[in-house]
Every structure is written in structure tokens, then in C-alpha cells.
Input
Amino acid sequence: LVPALLESLATCAPVIAVCTGVSGHLDGKGAFQETDQMGIMRPVSKWAVRVPYPERVPWAMRRAFSLATNGQPGPVYVEIPFEVGGDRAEMPAYQPAERAIRPAGDPARVAQAAVLLAEAERPLIVCGGGARRSGAHAELRALAELLGMPVMTTPSGRGIIPEDHSLSIGQVGLYRTRLGMLAFERADTLITVGSRNEEFQTGGWRIYPPGAKLIQVDIAPFEIGRNWIPDVAIVGDAKLVLGELLGHLREQQSERWQARGETWAQEKRAYAAEVAAEGQCADVPIKTKRVLHELNRVFGRDTVLVHENGSQDLWSYYSPYYTVLDLDGVVAPGEQTCMGMGVCGAIGAKLARPESKVVCITGDGAFQMHH
Output
């Protein structure tokens, strides 16, 4: 379970792991397979608890579901010792956990952020996996279209907006396109939503638009100022905060914003035509971009792309040669990038969305490590 929970912690995936443990009566005596399971699991879980009495099981499970699904989601480890699992107790009436509680942003900070965005000449928004997990797709698109503001994503943020949208200009950091580099380096106001701004996304924390103001939106206070120091920090749910920003800015619609959006649409059309021509490259041996372009053409819409890891993993990151056309149409790995995850993930994606096509690009090594 350790690698699985570590990956769940990195990807903010709500997972409940319920395991047995050595009887408390034998603790420390060297019982069969005895080890410090709590010590092992604490670093890879959002909360780890050992339940000492059977009547505490309902409390522990309700708390586990609440913690796993609220705030920044993550894995919870619940250990039930052998003698507790086999004991009897009067159980209280069932009380479901409070789940999916959404905190709004501080109104004063949201108003500050709205002023920065309204005054910006070259604003840019970067969405991470937290924006997707929040379900902020409609709010993000509406805000981008209102401001004529280009959208970039992290790998786990892909799918927050269809990548054939005129304001979608690819991924950040290691995976930037030429158009994305232009927008990022020229931005005078940057807003990041649900992103840790970690190593690959920031080019080892070396890539930042010179002199740009930063608005950081995240549901977890721990993430605020973790890397880049924001001018305006907003702790809150991405969907709610973006909706609050829209409420401020809709009253200030500007022809300047509309013209900016039209300029980016022209840039995007020209770049898309350039990429389409490259995608028809007839060189021998065949080039990766041709394979990806044809893959995109054949699978089209209603497709989930699942990233594998290993030497070929960057193939599926190469936007726009492969363009994610559907909302939530991609499954990206967490920080550990376990090899074989893509093959397993593709099977899981098909089970979760049987009506959709699923594609995974894998090498022979990763394929053999999927067991």
C-alpha cells in the first residue's frame, strides 16, 4: 500500500485504506509480521489512526471519509488491531460524514485580485489538478473569455478546458509550447489555481514572468507561498473563487479585453495551422509528432488519454501534437511517476467511463511493470 498511498497523497486522491494490525496485547513482542505500520503510513497519508476499541470504529471511519474528501483530498489509513476486529460492541446510530465542503475566498482578497486582473495588460492563468478536482471548468472558461486571457495548465490540469479552444495555449514549465513561452514570458499578471507550482511546472523554479504580479488560489493554506510568493493569496475552493472573481469583473466588461481575446485567437489559429502541417511530416524514420497527430485524428473526441511513464512518457505530454479535446480527457500521474501506472490507469479509466475511448502510449518496460 505504501507506493499507492504516496501517489494518492501527491495527486490529492481521496483513498481510505483499512488494514488489520497486530493485537495490542502482543505489541512489541515480535508477533508474526509485526512492524511499525503506523510509523510507515503516517508520512504517506493525510491522517493515520489506530482504533483501540470496537466502539470507536464508527467515529474513526466517519472522520476518515471527512478528512479524505474535504480540503485538499488525500489518503487516510485506518488500522484495526486483531482483537478489536473480533470484538463486539454496541454501535451508535449511523452518522454519515460531511463531504465536499467548499470554502469560499476572503471577499477582500478576491476584490484585490479582481482589481489586479482588471488592470492587467497581459494576464495569464495557470490551472493545476486542484482546479479540475474542484470542477471549476465552466468558471475558468467564462473568466478567460471575459478577460481575453490565455489559459495554461499543468499536466494534471489538462482537461480543465478543451485544448482546441482559442485561449488554450498548452502546458507550463517543461512542457511549454512556443506560443505558451511567448504568453508566459510576457505576462504582467499571473494567476495560479490549484497548483503547487512545483519543480517541473516551474522549470526548477527558474521560469517566472519578469516583474509579474502573482495571484495564488488554493484550497490548502499549506500551499500558499510554498514556492513563489503571491501578491494576493486566496485560500478557497477553485470553483467558488473563480465564480467570485467573475462576479466582480462582469460589471467591468471592456473592449480592451475583447480585443485581447481576438488577438490570442488569431495567434492560436496560426500556430494550430503550423502544428497541423508539422503533423503531416513524411520523414523516414517516422517522427513522434506524426504518430501523435495521427493518434489524435483517429481517436478524436470522447477520448481519455492516460499517461504512462518511462522513456516514452513525454510523447503523451507533447501538446499540441496530441490535443486533449474533452473536459477531464486526461489522466496524469502523480509526483512518483510509477512505471506501469499508465497501463493500469487505462484499464481503470475504461472501467470508470466505459462509453469513452481510452488510449495509452507505453513502452515495453512500463508495460511489463504494470502487474
In short: The mean pLDDT is 93. Residues 255-278 form the longest helix (24 residues).
